[in-house]
Amino acid sequence: MFFFTRLFFFVGEHLYASYRNIKLRLAKEKLTQQDKAILLKLFSYYTRLNATHKREFEEKVEWFIAEKHFLPRGDLKAVTQEMKLLIAATAVMVTFGFPRVTLKHFRKILIYTDSYYSTINQQYHQGEVNPKLGIIVLSWENFVRGFINQEDGINLGVHEIAHAMKLENQIHYNQESNFFNPTLWRRFAEHAAVETEKILNDEQTIFRSSAAKNQHEFFAVALEVFFERSVELKSYNQKLYQSLVYLLKQDPLVLAREV
Fold first, then answer.
1. Is the pTM of this model over 0.85?
2. What percent of the chain stands above pLDDT 90?
3. Chain centroid to CA 72: how far?
4. Which has the closest alpha carbon to 69: 42, 107, 103, 97?
Protein backbone atom coordinates (compact mmCIF):
# COMPACT_ATOMS: atom_id res chain seq x y z
CA MET A 1 0.00 0.00 0.00
CA PHE A 2 2.80 2.39 0.90
CA PHE A 3 4.53 1.67 -2.42
CA PHE A 4 1.40 2.49 -4.46
CA THR A 5 0.77 5.64 -2.43
CA ARG A 6 4.30 6.85 -3.12
CA LEU A 7 3.94 5.90 -6.78
CA PHE A 8 0.67 7.86 -7.01
CA PHE A 9 2.28 11.00 -5.61
CA PHE A 10 5.38 10.55 -7.78
CA VAL A 11 3.31 10.29 -10.98
CA GLY A 12 1.09 13.16 -9.86
CA GLU A 13 4.06 15.44 -9.24
CA HIS A 14 5.56 14.69 -12.65
CA LEU A 15 2.25 15.21 -14.45
CA TYR A 16 1.83 18.56 -12.70
CA ALA A 17 5.43 19.52 -13.54
CA SER A 18 4.83 18.63 -17.22
CA TYR A 19 1.60 20.65 -17.30
CA ARG A 20 3.34 23.62 -15.68
CA ASN A 21 6.26 23.47 -18.12
CA ILE A 22 3.87 23.51 -21.10
CA LYS A 23 2.00 26.45 -19.57
CA LEU A 24 5.25 28.32 -19.01
CA ARG A 25 6.45 27.70 -22.56
CA LEU A 26 3.24 29.25 -23.84
CA ALA A 27 3.64 32.21 -21.48
CA LYS A 28 7.34 32.81 -22.19
CA GLU A 29 7.93 35.81 -24.43
CA LYS A 30 11.15 36.73 -26.22
CA LEU A 31 12.86 39.89 -25.06
CA THR A 32 12.31 42.77 -27.45
CA GLN A 33 15.08 45.02 -28.75
CA GLN A 34 13.77 47.66 -26.34
CA ASP A 35 14.10 45.19 -23.44
CA LYS A 36 17.68 44.42 -24.42
CA ALA A 37 18.43 48.13 -24.75
CA ILE A 38 17.22 48.67 -21.16
CA LEU A 39 19.50 45.89 -19.91
CA LEU A 40 22.45 47.28 -21.87
CA LYS A 41 21.88 50.72 -20.42
CA LEU A 42 21.16 49.81 -16.81
CA PHE A 43 22.62 46.37 -16.09
CA SER A 44 26.41 46.42 -16.31
CA TYR A 45 26.81 42.67 -15.66
CA TYR A 46 24.81 41.92 -18.82
CA THR A 47 26.67 44.60 -20.78
CA ARG A 48 30.04 42.96 -20.05
CA LEU A 49 28.99 39.48 -21.24
CA ASN A 50 30.10 38.13 -24.59
CA ALA A 51 27.52 37.33 -27.28
CA THR A 52 27.05 33.69 -26.25
CA HIS A 53 26.60 34.49 -22.56
CA LYS A 54 24.25 37.35 -23.45
CA ARG A 55 21.94 34.92 -25.26
CA GLU A 56 22.03 32.55 -22.29
CA PHE A 57 21.32 35.44 -19.94
CA GLU A 58 18.40 36.68 -22.07
CA GLU A 59 16.77 33.24 -22.24
CA LYS A 60 16.99 32.82 -18.49
CA VAL A 61 15.48 36.27 -17.97
CA GLU A 62 12.60 35.23 -20.26
CA TRP A 63 11.97 32.10 -18.20
CA PHE A 64 12.15 34.00 -14.90
CA ILE A 65 9.59 36.57 -16.04
CA ALA A 66 7.28 33.82 -17.35
CA GLU A 67 7.46 31.86 -14.09
CA LYS A 68 6.83 34.70 -11.64
CA HIS A 69 3.83 36.79 -10.70
CA PHE A 70 4.96 40.40 -10.19
CA LEU A 71 2.45 42.11 -7.92
CA PRO A 72 2.24 45.82 -6.97
CA ARG A 73 1.70 46.61 -3.30
CA GLY A 74 1.10 49.72 -1.21
CA ASP A 75 1.13 52.89 -3.30
CA LEU A 76 2.50 51.15 -6.38
CA LYS A 77 -0.27 51.00 -8.99
CA ALA A 78 1.37 48.78 -11.60
CA VAL A 79 4.52 46.78 -12.27
CA THR A 80 6.28 48.01 -15.41
CA GLN A 81 8.26 45.93 -17.89
CA GLU A 82 11.43 47.72 -16.76
CA MET A 83 10.79 46.60 -13.17
CA LYS A 84 10.32 42.99 -14.28
CA LEU A 85 13.47 43.13 -16.41
CA LEU A 86 15.75 44.51 -13.71
CA ILE A 87 14.45 42.19 -10.99
CA ALA A 88 14.72 39.18 -13.31
CA ALA A 89 18.20 40.25 -14.45
CA THR A 90 19.35 40.46 -10.81
CA ALA A 91 18.05 36.95 -10.11
CA VAL A 92 19.67 35.62 -13.27
CA MET A 93 23.00 37.26 -12.43
CA VAL A 94 23.11 35.66 -8.98
CA THR A 95 22.08 32.22 -10.29
CA PHE A 96 23.90 32.41 -13.65
CA GLY A 97 26.26 29.57 -12.77
CA PHE A 98 23.26 27.24 -12.42
CA PRO A 99 21.39 27.23 -15.77
CA ARG A 100 18.40 25.26 -14.46
CA VAL A 101 17.92 27.16 -11.21
CA THR A 102 15.11 29.73 -11.48
CA LEU A 103 14.01 29.82 -7.82
CA LYS A 104 10.85 27.85 -8.60
CA HIS A 105 9.56 27.90 -5.02
CA PHE A 106 9.30 31.68 -5.05
CA ARG A 107 6.47 32.28 -7.50
CA LYS A 108 5.39 35.72 -6.34
CA ILE A 109 7.40 38.93 -6.21
CA LEU A 110 5.72 41.75 -4.31
CA ILE A 111 6.91 45.28 -5.03
CA TYR A 112 6.36 48.36 -2.85
CA THR A 113 7.36 51.88 -3.85
CA ASP A 114 9.47 52.39 -0.70
CA SER A 115 10.18 50.81 2.68
CA TYR A 116 7.04 49.12 3.98
CA TYR A 117 5.64 48.26 7.39
CA SER A 118 5.44 44.61 8.39
CA THR A 119 2.54 43.70 10.66
CA ILE A 120 4.34 40.47 11.59
CA ASN A 121 7.23 42.05 13.52
CA GLN A 122 6.05 45.70 13.60
CA GLN A 123 9.08 46.98 11.73
CA TYR A 124 9.80 48.75 8.45
CA HIS A 125 11.54 46.67 5.79
CA GLN A 126 13.31 47.33 2.51
CA GLY A 127 12.85 43.73 1.39
CA GLU A 128 12.39 40.19 2.65
CA VAL A 129 11.99 36.58 1.60
CA ASN A 130 9.15 34.42 2.91
CA PRO A 131 9.68 30.72 2.15
CA LYS A 132 6.38 29.71 3.76
CA LEU A 133 4.40 31.82 1.29
CA GLY A 134 6.90 31.48 -1.56
CA ILE A 135 7.33 35.23 -1.99
CA ILE A 136 10.13 37.74 -2.43
CA VAL A 137 9.31 41.29 -1.33
CA LEU A 138 11.19 44.36 -2.58
CA SER A 139 10.87 48.12 -2.14
CA TRP A 140 11.49 49.64 -5.56
CA GLU A 141 13.22 52.81 -4.36
CA ASN A 142 15.77 50.81 -2.37
CA PHE A 143 16.14 48.30 -5.18
CA VAL A 144 16.99 51.09 -7.63
CA ARG A 145 19.64 52.48 -5.27
CA GLY A 146 21.62 49.33 -5.96
CA PHE A 147 21.93 50.48 -9.58
CA ILE A 148 22.72 54.11 -8.84
CA ASN A 149 25.95 53.09 -7.12
CA GLN A 150 27.20 49.74 -8.34
CA GLU A 151 30.49 49.90 -6.45
CA ASP A 152 29.44 50.36 -2.82
CA GLY A 153 28.71 46.69 -2.14
CA ILE A 154 25.10 47.44 -1.22
CA ASN A 155 22.43 45.97 -3.48
CA LEU A 156 18.98 45.09 -2.13
CA GLY A 157 18.11 42.93 -5.13
CA VAL A 158 21.23 40.80 -4.82
CA HIS A 159 20.72 40.57 -1.05
CA GLU A 160 17.16 39.22 -1.23
CA ILE A 161 17.85 36.92 -4.19
CA ALA A 162 20.80 35.49 -2.24
CA HIS A 163 18.45 34.66 0.64
CA ALA A 164 15.99 33.05 -1.77
CA MET A 165 18.78 31.08 -3.45
CA LYS A 166 20.06 29.69 -0.16
CA LEU A 167 16.55 28.66 0.85
CA GLU A 168 15.80 27.17 -2.59
CA ASN A 169 18.84 24.92 -2.17
CA GLN A 170 17.10 23.35 0.84
CA ILE A 171 13.61 22.90 -0.67
CA HIS A 172 13.19 19.41 -2.07
CA TYR A 173 9.71 19.15 -3.55
CA ASN A 174 10.39 21.03 -6.80
CA GLN A 175 13.52 19.14 -7.91
CA GLU A 176 15.65 22.30 -7.71
CA SER A 177 17.41 21.63 -4.42
CA ASN A 178 20.96 20.63 -3.46
CA PHE A 179 22.60 22.54 -6.28
CA PHE A 180 25.27 23.85 -3.90
CA ASN A 181 28.14 21.41 -3.53
CA PRO A 182 28.26 20.56 0.23
CA THR A 183 32.07 20.51 0.33
CA LEU A 184 32.28 23.89 -1.37
CA TRP A 185 29.64 25.31 0.98
CA ARG A 186 31.63 24.15 4.03
CA ARG A 187 34.75 25.76 2.59
CA PHE A 188 32.91 29.07 2.15
CA ALA A 189 31.38 28.75 5.65
CA GLU A 190 34.84 28.39 7.18
CA HIS A 191 35.99 31.66 5.60
CA ALA A 192 32.69 33.29 6.56
CA ALA A 193 33.19 32.32 10.21
CA VAL A 194 36.61 34.00 10.26
CA GLU A 195 35.18 37.19 8.76
CA THR A 196 32.26 37.15 11.19
CA GLU A 197 34.69 37.05 14.10
CA LYS A 198 36.49 40.07 12.67
CA ILE A 199 33.24 42.01 12.56
CA LEU A 200 32.30 41.02 16.11
CA ASN A 201 35.77 42.04 17.33
CA ASP A 202 35.57 45.41 15.54
CA GLU A 203 38.48 44.50 13.28
CA GLN A 204 38.85 46.01 9.83
CA THR A 205 36.84 44.14 7.21
CA ILE A 206 35.27 44.73 3.81
CA PHE A 207 31.87 43.56 5.07
CA ARG A 208 29.34 45.72 6.89
CA SER A 209 28.39 44.88 10.47
CA SER A 210 24.98 43.33 9.65
CA ALA A 211 26.80 40.41 7.99
CA ALA A 212 27.67 39.07 11.45
CA LYS A 213 24.03 38.49 12.38
CA ASN A 214 24.03 34.87 11.19
CA GLN A 215 25.26 32.63 8.36
CA HIS A 216 22.27 33.51 6.15
CA GLU A 217 22.93 37.22 6.47
CA PHE A 218 26.66 36.84 5.86
CA PHE A 219 25.98 34.94 2.65
CA ALA A 220 23.62 37.67 1.39
CA VAL A 221 26.03 40.50 2.26
CA ALA A 222 28.97 38.55 0.83
CA LEU A 223 27.17 38.20 -2.51
CA GLU A 224 26.51 41.94 -2.63
CA VAL A 225 30.25 42.54 -2.27
CA PHE A 226 31.14 39.66 -4.61
CA PHE A 227 29.16 41.15 -7.49
CA GLU A 228 29.67 44.87 -6.85
CA ARG A 229 33.21 44.99 -5.49
CA SER A 230 34.78 41.92 -7.08
CA VAL A 231 38.28 43.38 -7.44
CA GLU A 232 38.35 44.70 -3.87
CA LEU A 233 37.03 41.45 -2.40
CA LYS A 234 39.59 39.37 -4.26
CA SER A 235 42.38 41.67 -3.10
CA TYR A 236 41.05 41.69 0.47
CA ASN A 237 40.60 37.90 0.82
CA GLN A 238 41.45 35.86 -2.25
CA LYS A 239 40.56 32.53 -0.62
CA LEU A 240 37.10 33.73 0.35
CA TYR A 241 36.58 35.21 -3.10
CA GLN A 242 37.65 31.96 -4.75
CA SER A 243 35.37 29.94 -2.46
CA LEU A 244 32.43 31.98 -3.79
CA VAL A 245 33.62 31.53 -7.38
CA TYR A 246 33.58 27.75 -6.92
CA LEU A 247 30.32 27.77 -4.95
CA LEU A 248 28.42 29.97 -7.43
CA LYS A 249 30.14 28.48 -10.50
CA GLN A 250 31.01 31.87 -11.91
CA ASP A 251 33.64 34.58 -11.66
CA PRO A 252 32.43 38.11 -12.46
CA LEU A 253 36.01 39.18 -13.21
CA VAL A 254 36.49 36.42 -15.78
CA LEU A 255 33.09 37.07 -17.39
CA ALA A 256 34.04 40.74 -17.70
CA ARG A 257 37.24 39.80 -19.57
CA GLU A 258 35.39 37.57 -22.03
CA VAL A 259 33.63 40.43 -23.80
1. yes
2. 75
3. 20
4. 107
